[in-house]
Amino acid sequence: MPSEETRNPAAAAASNAWTGHDVAEILREQGWLLANASPPQLAWCERAAALLGPQVADRRSLADRLHLVFHYDARAILASVESHAVLSRYAARDVVRQLALVLLDGVPLTSERFKEVIDVLKDLVGLGSRELFHPIRLALAGRAGGGDLDRVILLLDEAAALSFVVAVKPARERILEFCAALD
Asked: Per-domain residue ranges for the chain?
């Protein structure tokens, strides 16, 4: 009898081969974590593996997604052609401005809070998913793209509260930096 992975390639792609220890190892290799992870750091690594693992095909892709958590430079992001393409779309800058206003409250961006923010933005700007999510992903994750970047966004505030070697910029700080570089 064929395995689930053989019968259903989508299920195989959605499986997760990554653990928190794999994430911690990548963080150590990149210099974002020294020695062993503390229990809160290891819990974050487990969450990162659970969120990002099913979305990546290999270790390099996982490291790439983690890089988006630990490295953020709004000026460099805005210097890319991709950014200009996203921001030139109808109402993209309005989405970024409204996102900044919503995130100014400083409430940590959890999964539930992210859903609330999206609902508020949908009401405020009245746009569809692509027009709404691409500017959000660009401003907070540093790239426009698919839903896998939303998972990067969900890791930001929790990582920012931990003591990694590199200070992770939370969503609020990222959107403020992005808006400052935008204008």
From this structure: 4-182
